[in-house]
Amino acid sequence: MADNLQEQLYQNIRAALLEGRFQPGERLKIRDLAAQWGTSPMPVRGALQRLVAEGALEGEAQRSLRVPAMTRERFAQLLPVRINLEGLAVELAAARIGSAQLEVLQGCVERMHVALQQRDVQGYLRNNSQFHLYLYQACANPVLLRLIESLWLQVGPFFSRLFTEADLSLRLNSFHADCLKALQAGDGKAARAAIEQDLSYFGQYLLNLLSLEAASGRA
């Protein structure tokens, strides 16, 4: 029972990191999380320690851990790796994906569109995470998936920054729609190109944001 609870807590916190529900630099207090889920601190501590081992959290404190802060240098190192790995996953997935999976992706695109219209940040990030990670699962390469998810755990908390500066809402979903159309047409190379454009476009935006913060002394 304890092992099952720790696994459930691990998956919940992990999903929150992937969806950008925690901010870079935010402290996660074990007792607060235990109270939130109505459990003892022990399974929460075990779940957080697993995320520390994966590089998603940092610190050794008994009472709190921290979401790693994002720097321009770190993001610049992560971005090209993500582009190559996620692009490969999409191209592999295109040859395997079926109609039922395409319907799930279509639903994600539609919900992201609605979330953007309503300025629902968490709704958009949740469906953005589902779109990408669900699509990558179709590549049927567990080694590739583990690498991708490890990188997402590191960058997920920074995604919410897309909504804190210039309004990019008109562009946020266009690459997803292009990718979906390519997948529906069975064009793996075009689907890969759309995802790589998505990562490159917003990656460059976030790099510029980090540069401005560093210049102003806030990074």
From TrEMBL:
Positions of the HTH gntR-type domain: 3-70
Protein name according to UniProt: Transcriptional regulator, GntR family
UniProt keywords, alphabetically: DNA-binding, Transcription, Transcription regulation
Matching PANTHER family: HTH-TYPE TRANSCRIPTIONAL REGULATOR MCBR, TRANSCRIPTIONAL REGULATOR, GNTR FAMILY
Top-level taxon in the UniProt lineage: Bacteria
Keyword ATP-binding: no
SUPFAM superfamilies, A to Z: GntR ligand-binding domain-like, Winged helix' DNA-binding domain
Family annotation (Pfam families): FCD, GntR
Entry keyword Plastid: no
